[in-house]
Amino acid sequence: MPSEYAIETSDLAKVYRSRWKRREVRAVDGISLNVQRGTIFGLLGPNGAGKTTFVKMLLSAVHPTRGSALIFGRNAREPEARRPIGYLPENHRFPTYFTGAGMLDFYAALSGMESAERRKRIPEMLEVVGLEQWGSMRIGKYSKGMLQRLGLAQALIHSPSMLILDEPTDGVDPVGRMQIREVLTRFEQQGVTIFINSHLLVEVELFCREVAILDKGKVALSGKMQDLTAGKGYRLTLAEAPEALVEELRTKATSMASRNGFVDFQFATRQLANEAVDLLRAQRCEIESLAPTTSTLEEVFVRTVAK
Ligand SMILES: Nc1ncnc2c1ncn2[C@@H]1O[C@H](COP(=O)(O)OP(=O)(O)OP(=O)(O)O)[C@@H](O)[C@H]1O
Ligand SMILES: [Mg+2]
Known about the structure:
Layout: E1 5-18, E2 23-36, E3 40-44, H1 51-58, E4 66-71, E5 74-75, H2 79-82, E6 85-88, H3 100-110, H4 115-128, H5 144-156, E7 162-166, H6 174-189, E8 193-198, H7 201-207, E9 210-215, E10 218-224, H8 225-229, E11 230-238, H9 243-252, E12 255-259, E13 262-267, H10 270-282, E14 287-294, H11 297-305
Helix pairs in contact: 3-4, 4-5
The protein binds adenosine-5'-triphosphate and magnesium ion (MG).
Magnesium ion binds at residues 51-52, 90, 166, 197.
């Protein structure tokens, strides 16, 4: 039976050893991670946390010091395990004398595609990433955003089941980033698993379903995006209320704070929030807003890596 996971790692670790400096770097320090098929997974972490080393081990470009990795249920060391993967490396450099289409043809040939299939697939891919006008231009003249989009087309050229993208939108402007997100969402809808390394938190928050935060080679926090950013309790905001009522609400609330002419009450449970609403409405007080408290991914990230 095919595995329900696109990626399964168990205690995966990499220690880089530099003999002449007698130094050891525990780049990845025992990561056990499961990535469901068909999901968009974000691996986050500060610079040097071990994100790139982790994906290089999935691709067997770096040999693990210990532990194991499975790709769609196959040992990642088997060359066949890599066939269903499309990979966009971090800071990739394509030879500048290639044209965009020529570069795609080169990579498609490397992955074993027949020339008739390549001729059909290359214009399709250039169109998917919005470079249909630029396929015959030399890569040396491409902007950074165009290079990233071409890199994405390269990763997609052989119709992979999983995309592994290392900082896919690095150096790309906001419009270009949105275009890349749109392309990725389209492939996710077709069932492609997408694994992204990133430190652009807003971006990951926008479209990853699950995340893991790496810190110094270990998973510091992982889970579904909505669970990680879900807060505890409810926030009720009022523009004005009689003082006696504010005092009464204060006894039920875990905290109260004023800001820009509004008063925010924090309630620990839904029941307490509803009791507050009953009190306010019984006296015809207007409620400005009531919402579950959530954190941004940035707040979660900073809390996690600053520990
Ligand atoms: N080939 C190597 N030899 C020795 N040390 C290395 C090597 N590659 C990476 N490292 C070290 O391993 C640690 C993790 O690096 P890695 O590139 O995996 O982190 P990263 O999370 O991808 O960082 P960034 O966000 O900057 O891309 C760093 O301390 C780095 O200096
Ligand atoms: Mg990296």
